UniProtKB/TrEMBL annotation, chain A:
GO terms for cellular component: cytoplasm; nucleus. Coiled coil: none annotated. Keywords: Cytoplasm, Hydrolase, Metal-binding, Nucleus, Zinc. This is Integrator complex subunit 11. The lineage of its organism: Eukaryota, Metazoa, Chordata, Craniata, Vertebrata. Residues 16-229 form the Metallo-beta-lactamase domain. Signal peptide: none annotated. Belongs to the metallo-beta-lactamase superfamily. RNA-metabolizing metallo-beta-lactamase-like family. INTS11 subfamily.
TrEMBL record, chain B:
PANTHER family: INTEGRATOR COMPLEX SUBUNIT 9. It is found in: Cytoplasm; Nucleus. Keywords: Cytoplasm, Nucleus. This is Integrator complex subunit 9. Belongs to the metallo-beta-lactamase superfamily. RNA-metabolizing metallo-beta-lactamase-like family. INTS9 subfamily. The keyword Nucleus applies. The gene is INTS9.
Length: 590, 655
């Protein structure tokens, strides 16, 4: 039985370090190659030695697919391709290919330049790694080799995020990456067709959450920011340069415009301006509304939002600052946080998920005293707010995707075990399909039962279809008889006659003859005629012929009559039929 | 498989392919060359044009009333050829329309609106967006000129017969249609389904279509139409030159049974690079002499390359201060849209987007105010306009659009130059109504589509079994009849088509894909007939749904009560029984005798005959006739006959 195997090297019952191995139809595919924000040691990257101890990864992997540019999905890429060594194809969408190297470089700078780590990938390695990338277009069917094909679908989540359909023969797997089933202010909703994969590998970050409407959350967010500004506080919004940042910028921009607010909004420099450029150039990846109006008004040209300078943090008066990174684990957002944490008028709004171990995670869990580097502690007095703006599908969205794709099996990754457990129960109950949630390093095996594709001779097919009448009748199944010829790799189904011909074989006729005696006073000819009329009345729908040479032929059965030599009343019936004859006439005529 | 050819214009094709019960329209270009027969539509009142006399027949008996309005109005009646379509085919039976590039979709509203069309149109995103812009521009050109009464009297056959020149010979003028409205455009385009390159689209489970990059314009595509066993390639408007679009995908065209070839270059003797050079030098020369340059062009396509070329040329030619104007209702949109289709651009341009920088340098020309765009000559343009300058504007036929105004304005001065770059219209015909003309005329047609040399190389490479092409490609151009290099020479020769042709494509479908369900597949018993060749007899239920066929096991009949066993008379119609397989091979005498012996049949008398042997089983009073191609068992005892049958079958192969 063919099997599909799925092994997470990361993101198995965990969020971060997404890296999933799939073996399907003799092909090995790696899905994502991320890093873990919560660790600074070896655990930061997936354990590639699981794949091979000393061989080259290229020999074991047919391709690597990156779903989107977040570092927990692509952060280990240069490490894997340049340091561990992988020269096979790497696939990602155009926006991901554009943005990913910038985030990697940023990540590298923080780790090497600020933290002083050595033995880390270099800028050159990032460049070399990106040279191996083959860009993917949405819905394009890419033939990785003769058998393996992949197809990307729109996933929402961030600019360029994709879900990917992997197919070998009639077996297939869909990997969602991170996705969002509701359109937001700058991106559309994920979509996939009814591709009926054998396994749907889905993220489950918000497996237990059913979020209220987006509008409410937006109103809440604006209210909190507004209140804070009114009382002269400073608002820090830690974000990742691309993604939520643009959505919240659009939100604040329109709000500022409408309310005629004067407090400055800043965006930490560098990345962001560039980021907005990406959004302008990849506008086809945003939502319908933005795409429609971009010629008249480009939503990513902000009037109220200005570039931030480090010195502004100490300016008096209210302000809103978007700063990177989003989990307060390093960089500018952390610096500003340290400056503002002591004042209860200030506020930090965490708009997304924070990985365990980061300061973001700690303060969200209510920790008010933080241990900083050295022995220093930091008292957190400012208001901490959490607003889930990260564009992951919630439980409802995940169920919706299952309904769209109709998978035969479900596999959850990128979530916490307890939450997964809950969702797994729900999925199994609602869809009656198996749902798996392997831990890192644990392999899930699903046996598939693919149909066998065969080439049928059109003559045979048409003959059989014609028998069923012009319209197929579901109640009257049509049977089909033919010969399957297996030659090298080809399978052909043809009629038996054609099979003989094609194989250059002669038909071998097998016939049987027997004698039956019966008592009948009539002449031979009359007896035969009586048999003929009798058969004619009993066997409706068969070709029955009475030939002038004194034979009756029913299908392939030949009947002759002669009188017994001893007794003219005893007639001897000579019956002869071929092996293929199905009509059991002998018994009837008795 | 049939091909209905509805357009005779080789670069504006419209063909309909019937393939496996699907009806597929390939492109629907709008042939607007007939507008050259009419006077231009001026945007502002032109005394010269309005003073032209109306048409009066030679004997003076017929004076076409309001002749001028008549001629003006005819312009809105674009010549279309869909009358044909309705004769050959019912438009409502078309299942899908495949669009290869934005120039080849301009007739779409005529097909999808008010015709009962219920199908789907497939096109790439740039094709749809730019196609929409071009239609919008056309509608805009037609709607903004003052409306006059429509003139139809010239279409009267009697009168048409007496009209001069090409009008007299124009076919089916009564079928010419008015230009569509924006509402019709929107409705037509709402039927478009977007596709990406190499995306596989299933049509009714019977056929798969897939667009391939054709390298000609943004989002331009060739199409593969295939089933599991047949493949048709539709090549329309392809280019191997490195301009802005993604390069042409050639390898996917391999192994085609039929390749339909349209849209080759209209300028087989003009080298696009040379033309570009000439364009630049003429432009510079005119500006230096203090004249203006008019470039009548389409608002998308080659203009991007022209601007890019000028971007590099401006500084070196000292044109830094010369204003460049691009005037079209869609100028801004066209320039903006060109920047957002990174996926559809050539590698170099994609790399720029990754930086992130706009892929086309016209962004910089706009930023530095060297290039300005205006929706029309009215409004801001009239106040900001400085001379000498370069103006890009449409329509290239010089019959409508803002270009008409510039012709009136600049035509009288020999300092000015008009440079034709679009190959669709004869420049002499285009200029005819403006004669006498003092301005210089330069003809640098830039057509990047495949030339005959490139196409023969391509065909050698991809080796289709048959090539179908417009008949124009099978002979040298009329004006250059000695140039046998300007035609397709293939072995076997291409199948030519002309307007109205219906071709039977040389196709014999022999096989179809069917799926054997796993349960049935596991139950099959293959036997090896020859080394490497096995056969298995299959008896199964056939299910056909959505043009997909599957075979599954015949459900077992409910078990019969054991007492009746074989003696049971079969009541059901014999259809329910699987027929016995056909047999092949021969029964070897010695081995058969040995087998008989094993089964206790020892008294066998063997008699040799002409064709084999007759075995007489004396104890059983049974005859077995063994021949090369047949075995005959004459036996009155049923159990024995069954035994003998099974013994014989051991020697034979079942098929």
């Amino acid at each position: 039985m063919p099997e599909i195997k799925v092994t997470p090297l990361g993101a198995g019952q965990d969020v971060g370090r997404s890296c999933i191995l799939v073996s399907i139809g003799g092909k090995n595919i790696m899905l994502d190659c991320g890093m873990h924000m919560g660790y600074n040691d070896d655990r930061r990257f997936p354990d590639f030695s699981y794949i091979t101890q000393n061989g080259r990864l290229t020999d074991f992997l047919d391709c690597l697919i990156i779903s989107h540019f977040h570092l927990d999905h692509c952060g280990a890429l240069p490490y894997m391709s340049e340091m561990v060594g992988y020269d096979g194809p790497i696939y990602m969408t155009h926006p991901t290919k554009a943005i990913c190297p910038i985030l990697l470089e940023d990540f590298r700078k923080i780790t090497v330049d600020k933290k002083g780590e050595t033995n880390f990938f270099t800028s050159q390695m990032i460049k070399d790694c990106m040279k191996k990338v083959i860009p993917l277009n949405l819905h394009q069917t890419v033939q990785v080799d003769d058998e393996l094909e992949i197809k990307a679908y729109y996933a929402g989540h961030v600019l360029g995020a994709a879900m990917v359909h992997i197919k070998v023969g009639s077996e297939s797997v869909v990997y969602t990456g991170d996705y969002n089933m509701t359109p937001d202010r700058h991106l559309g909703a994920a979509w996939i067709d009814k591709c009926r994969p054998d396994i749907l590998i889905s993220e489950s970050t918000y497996a237990t959450t059913i979020r209220d409407s987006k509008r409410c959350r937006e109103r809440d967010f604006l209210k909190k920011v507004h209140e804070s500004i009114e009382r002269g506080g400073k608002v820090l919004i830690p974000v990742f340069a691309l993604g939520r940042a643009q959505e919240l910028c659009i939100l604040l921009e329109t709000f500022w415009e409408r309310m005629n607010l004067k407090a400055p909004i800043y965006f930490s420099t560098g990345l962001t301006e560039k980021a907005n450029h990406y959004y302008k150039l990849f506008i086809t990846w945003t939502n319908q509304k933005i795409r429609k109006t971009f010629v008249q008004r480009n939503m990513f040209e902000f009037k109220h939002i200005k570039a931030f300078d480090r010195s502004y943090a100490d300016n008096p008066g209210p302000m809103v600052v978007f700063a990177t990174p989003g989990m307060l684990h390093a960089g500018q957002s952390l610096q500003i946080f340290k400056k503002w944490a002591g004042n209860e008028k200030n506020m930090v709004i965490m708009p997304g998920y924070c990985v365990q171990g980061t300061i973001g995670h700690k303060i969200l869990n209510g920790q008010r005293k933080l241990e900083m580097e050295g022995r220093a502690t930091l008292d957190v007095k400012l208001q901490v707010e959490y607003m889930s703006f990260s564009a992951h599908a919630d439980a409802k969205g995940i169920m919706q995707l299952i309904r769209m794709a109709e998978p035969r099996n479900m596999l959850l990754v990128h979530g916490e075990a307890v939450k997964m457990e809950f969702l797994k129960g729900k999925i199994e109950q609602e869809f009656s399909i198996d749902c798996y949630m392997p831990a890192n390093g644990e392999t899930t095996t699903v046996t598939t039962n693919p149909s066998v594709p065969v080439d049928i001779s059109l003559n045979l097919l048409k003959r059989e279809m014609a028998l069923g009448g012009p319209l197929p009748d579901p109640k009257k199944p049509r049977t089909m008889h033919g010969t399957l010829i297996m030659k090298e790799n080809s399978l052909k189904l043809v009629s038996s006659e054609q099979a003989l011909k094609e194989l250059g074989l002669n038909e071998h006729q097998l016939r049987f003859t027997c004698h039956v005696q019966l008592q009948d006073p009539h002449s031979d000819a009359d007896t035969l005629h009586r048999i003929y009329t009798h058969l004619k009345s009993v066997l409706k729908g068969y070709t029955i012929q009475h030939l002038p040479d004194g034979t009756v032929i029913v299908e392939s059965i030949v009947i002759k009559v002669s009188s017994s030599a001893e007794d003219s009343n005893t007639k001897v019936l000579l019956l002869s039929w071929s092996y293929q004859e199905v009509l059991n006439i002998l018994k009837r005529s008795k | 498989m049939k091909l209905y050819c509805l357009s005779g214009h080789p670069t504006l094709p419209c063909n309909v392919l019937k393939f496996k019960s699907t009806t597929i329209m390939l492109d629907c270009g709008l042939d607007t060359t007939s507008v050259l027969n009419f006077l231009p539509l001026p945007l502002v009142h032109s005394p010269r044009l309005s003073k032209l006399p109306g048409w009066v027949s030679k004997d003076g008996t017929i004076n076409l009333e309001k002749a001028r309005e008549a001629v003006c109005n005819v312009l809105r009646l674009l010549g279309v050829y869909f009358n044909l379509l309705q004769e050959l085919l019912d438009l409502s039976t078309i299942d899908v329309i495949l669009i290869s590039n934005y120039h080849c979709m301009m007739a779409l509203p005529y097909i999808t609106e008010h015709t009962g069309f219920t199908g789907t149109v497939y096109a790439t995103e740039p094709t749809l967006q730019i196609g929409r812009l071009l239609m919008e521009e056309l509608v805009n050109f037609m709607e903004r000129v003052p409306k006059a009464q429509s003139a139809t009297s010239w279409k009267n056959k009697e009168i048409q017969r007496m009209l001069p020149g090409p009008l007299k010979d124009a076919v089916d003028v009564w079928m010419w249609k008015r230009c569509y409205s924006m509402q019709e455009v929107n409705s037509a385009l709402s039927k478009v389904q977007l596709v990406g390159y190499s995306q596989k689209v299933e049509l009714f489970g019977a056929v798969q279509v897939s667009p391939l990059s054709s390298g000609y314009s943004l989002g331009s595509s060739n199409w593969i139409i295939q089933s599991h066993h047949e493949k048709v390639s539709y090549v329309s408007g392809s280019s191997l030159l490195t301009t802005h679009p993604q390069p042409m995908d050639q390898s996917s065209l391999k192994n085609s049974d039929v390749l339909i070839l349209t849209g080759l270059t209209q300028m087989p003797t003009a080298n696009p690079d040379g033309m570009l050079g000439e364009f630049c030098s003429n432009l510079a020369m005119t500006i230096r002499a203090g004249g203006n340059v008019l470039v009548p062009c389409y608002s998308s396509g080659v203009i991007y390359d022209l601007l890019e070329c000028l971007y590099q040329f401006i500084e070196s030619a000292n044109l830094g201060t010369t204003p460049f104007y691009f005037i079209s209702p869609i100028a801004n949109s066209s320039l903006e849209f060109s920047q957002i289709f990174a996926e559809w651009l050539c590698h170099n341009k994609q790399t720029k987007v990754y930086l992130p920088e706009p892929p086309f340098p016209h962004a910089e020309l706009i930023q530095t105010n060297k290039l300005k765009h205006y929706p029309s000559i009215h409004g801001d343009f009239s106040s900001e306009f400085r001379q000498p300058c370069v103006v890009f504007t449409g329509h290239p036929s010089l019959r409508f659009g803002d270009v008409v105004h510039f012709m009136e304005l600049w035509g009288k001065s020999s300092l000015n130059t008009i440079i034709f770059t679009e190959p669709d219209f004869s420049y002499l015909d285009a200029l005819a109504p403006y004669q006498p003309l003092a301005m210089k005329c330069v003809y640098c047609p830039i057509d990047t589509r495949l030339n005959f040399h490139q196409v023969s190389k391509l065909l050698k490479e991809v080796q289709p079994l048959h090539v179908v092409c417009p008949e124009q490609y099978t002979q040298p151009p009329l004006t250059q009849s000695h140039r046998s290099d300007l035609m397709l020479e293939l072995q076997p020769p291409p199948m030519p088509y002309r307007r109205c042709s219906v071709l039977n494509l040389p196709f014999r479908r022999r096989y179809e894909r069917i799926y054997i369900l796993p349960e049935l597949a596991n139950s099959l018993v293959p036997s090896e007939i020859k080394p490497g060749v096995s056969v298995a007899t299959v008896s199964a239920l056939l299910h056909s749904k959505d043009n997909k066929h599957t075979l599954q096991s015949v459900p077992k009949p409910p078990p019969m009560p054991p007492s009746k066993k074989r003696k049971r008379v079969i009541e059901e119609p014999p259809v329910a029984l699987a027929p016995k397989p056909m047999l092949s091979g021969a029964v070897a005498l010695e081995a058969f005798l040995a087998t008989l012996q094993k089964h206790g049949i020892t008294e066998v008398k063997v008699e040799e005959t002409a064709d084999g042997h007759i075995l007489h089983l004396q104890a059983e009073d049974t005859l077995i006739q063994l021949e090369e191609d047949g075995t005959h068992i004459v036996c009155d005892s049923e159990p024995l006959r069954t035994t003998l049958r099974d013994l014989v079958l051991r020697f034979l192969q079942k098929l």
